[in-house]
Protein 1
Amino acid sequence: MKVGIPKGLLYYKYHPFLITFFKELGADVVVSEDTNKKILDLGVKYAVDEACLPIKIFHGHAVALRDKCDIIVIPRIMQIKKNEYICPKFCGLPEMVTNSIENMPLSITEPIYTFTKKRLYRWAKSAGKKVTGNEFKIKHAFLKAYEGQLNYNAGILDENYDIKIALVGHPYNIYDNFVNMNLVNKLNKLGVGVETMEFTHELLISLEINNLYKRPFWTFARENYGFAVNASKEKRVDGIIYISSFNCGIDSVIIELIKDKVGSFPFLTLKVDEHTGEAGIDTRIEAFTDMLERRIVNESNIPTHG
Ligand code: SF4
């Protein structure tokens, strides 16, 4: 059986688990290609106009896989942390995709709760049955996949740059190089190193969150706020770049909360959608880098990071 996995949304966070699980079940795993112009155009064509860019891109990946697999994984991710939620678009993703794209293959859409091993195993039992009737095989595949995910080190932590920024945003904006137009590479070429939230301990994130009037309801909001505020406060970075999807309600709230907290600390928001031009991004990050350089030299505001 060929199992299709679209390279969109939280694929960037959970691909070791998904790929290992279905491979261990004996399936032939087909992952869509990296996001490109063709995938984007397909997404724009099939998704509803109001959808944000990452959702449109997921649609594009689903169309690209439509004729290449017997069954497709459309993850209905409900919760990745207890008592927190993620964007409602994740919960309704299977309905959005299957109602917008005709002739889709069978799909795996069981709700996913990743905050305990037991809850995730529930998903594995149900999803695995669509590939094999062998319960022992499903359990074995789950354990292998779980271990693979635990051993996966995501995140970017550049060393040896004179200037460093905290790169904040959803994983699908940070790690999809088509969406962000190779932002990390561009920054590195300008002499700017990058740090992402994976290297900030959960406890530090929680400490920053505790200072808020109200705890954010959304997991990504909590993580992005906690990381950005902590990195600026500890002066591990010289500035913050938030890469945000146009139309994302969660981003619009969290960007304002971060700005309010960090005050005059350098902060750049890069909004992306299907119309974003590369020249505009280049100009903005060059100007931001110039400003950081001037700030370090002229204002004696030298950070304490290595
Ligand atoms: S969190 Fe924002 S960017 Fe992500 S799927 Fe929801 S609306 Fe889109």
Protein 2
Amino acid sequence: MAFFPFLLFIGVLSTTAATHHKSNTHFDGFQVHRLYVNPEDTSVLQATFDSLSIVELNHGRGKNNTSTLDLAIPPSHVEAFRALNLTTTILSDNLGMDIAAEGPLQDYPEFDADGVPSLSWFDAYHAYEDHIRFWSDLQASFPNNSELIQAGQSFEGRPIQGIHLWGSGGRNSKPAVFFNGNVHAREWITSMVSPLHPLIDYCPVPLCRFIDVDFVGYENDTAVRTALDNYDFYVLPVVNPDGFVYSQTDNRLWRKNRQKRENTTEIGTDINRNWSVGFGGDGSSSNPGSETFSGYSPGDAPETAALMKFAQTLAADKGIKLYIDWHSYAQVILLSYGYTCDSFPENIDQQISLARETSARIAQSYNTTFDYGPGCLVLYQSSGNGRDYMTDAAGTEFGWGIELRSTSYGFVLPADQILPSSIEIWEGMKYLWANM
Ligand SMILES: [Zn+2]
């Protein structure tokens, strides 16, 4: 399925030097439309969209197995877009206002009595350097059962950092649960939800402060204790730090990494098309200007290379039980495979059963519906993605991707939904870990 070349909108107004300024690319007056379309038709429309400087957002699934594609249309081309007479729903009249309403990046939270950053962390989005500090402060608050980890470096030389947590068996004694967040830069909710923040900092304190085995939560909460005793958790909340920083400082809707290539002025490789399994197939692009540019060879994006190496280390040691690549915003649990619609992992029936109940648990808190199924069938074909690599090349029993909220708000999810998103996912994860 075609993804359209992403068009960069270079900001024209300077911003102040404030530490927490957000995105100087302007989306004022951009309309967001949801287009209902057959997958085959999107490639026909691609040239038209290009000529109208339309920004492609997310794919989704409409009623009766139709596909949806969300588009951001610059104000100067709204009339021309309307003249195409396509069937659409307007999701936003002014994307710039949505970004403003998302709120400014907030200062670092206070600490609570346990020495852990307070729940106010979830009241707003935060600058990348504050995420790093947050992981470090969380780790420092339960030092006997956690460590900071690093998996290589980004193109611009930022360490890909995270946390490793373990239970009573001791460090590195159990099969891995491996989480990757924010592979796509603009999917900010993923680095708020994915890093086990829910486990550590959302859960009604102190019940879920389970990381320290001496802690009361570890003794009292069976789900928490079982999960931590059964698995070593490796969480890399922002595997695309360069893109994430760029989405905070320059372009809120940036997706790829920030890799420069020879013989092109286009920047960025889609890290989630750069893995070796299914590399270069349908649902990825060899065009450096595309939103889904795969790179020229598997792992030629340094971030992907680092993650493949890290995964191989886990696989060769205690093995990987569960991998989740966190995305937004289609509200769907994606199982392998994405690169083919014609074959399935051997344990697909068990996977679908687990995903169905995980989805049901997620829905219990706020009625947020999550679809589920093999990615190629339930969303769209995507080749060279991380979950397929984990399944086929790293022996992972459950190689999943989860697209978080929200099909209504898109990438620019209001900050007051960060905590609800964390809570509902926490409920799903508790079920999944106890039953997989
Ligand atoms: Zn994504």
Protein 3
Amino acid sequence: MISAEEFCDLLADRGFTFASGVPCSHFGGPIAHLSTQAGRYVPAPNEGNALAVAAGAALGGQRTYVMLQNSGLGNLINPLTSLVMTYRLPILSFTSLRGWPDPATDEPQHEVMGPATPKLLDSIDTPHHTLYAQDGVEEFSAILEKAEKDLAEQRAPFVLVERGAIGKATAANDPHTEGLPASEAIRIVTAAAPQAAVIATTGFTGRDTFAVADAPGTFYMQGSMGHASSIGLGVALTHPERPVVVLDGDGALLMHLGSLSMIGSEAPANLIHVVLDNRVHESTGGQATTSATTSFPGMATAAGYASAVVCDREDGLQAAMSRAQATPGPHLVCIKTLPRTGAMPPRATNALSTLDIRDRFRSDLQR
Ligand SMILES: Cc1ncc(C[n+]2csc(CCOP(=O)(O)OP(=O)(O)O)c2C)c(N)n1
């Protein structure tokens, strides 16, 4: 293992001074380390944005790298192939290897992408090198040397990073000091809308929902980060008689923000879009999102939602849920949530298979 500081310093020694990315816990250390120094790391909403901002910085003359989880490769393939490869821009990408080498040891949403990651890069003729957990500074330097050769040939190399290859560091962030615990907010929302079909976003929100409000009408969306509200829209449009509650995260909503406009345009009267805004990607170690400078209610209203509010207390949240159910939507309810404390409850997929989740949700919609 190399430390987070060694990772960043070896790259900086080679002139890589501009980084972007979307967190994976594998990169918690470097992101935390870089975030302590202004201008070193741009937190991106999705992996494609991360690559594109790095491409812009490369055009601007900087040496750049990005960090991502391999589940986000799909978000990045378009700008990788049509921008970075087409214009031969020199960017170094680090991707974690969830679901690799043995998909059975990871969560189900990584099963396809784990073994596919190297093959996918091969299929677009992108060079890649692997940093293993047992590797130290010497091996990492050798990998960077190989990557330099790729860059010199105007290719954009990837380094595949095994779990445990880079050390951790504590993320500095700016949490809300007023707000509700996430699990409490989920309990209040689901109790206020007992008839609703619920879509729970990926990460800790799904785990909290499974612990405090499991029901057959809850779809636990592990993976497909950022798509909970689009799934919710599809459900709401096909079942206009049923209230639909989306439990979203700030990082997840920011990842595919265009869904706000799609929802505003389709205007499903039965959709309540709840955003648990803790200003961080808590599920991957608490790296800051950019929600502190973004107004979700402002965006939702501008996108055509019928109403949008912020709550940070139980009474306000109860009132917002009552109003949202009494008037046609779509409604956005943004809840300021506090950092989670204590051990996280288990994932839904520890007890249910993905097919169980699908089937019981479908049957519940038919009832
Ligand atoms: C495309 C993609 N990129 C990255 C990840 C890794 N990931 C899983 S959960 C998560 C954080 C989600 O943040 P947020 O929506 O704010 O919820 P919180 O974790 O704070 O509850 C990330 C980055 C992922 N699952 N998919």
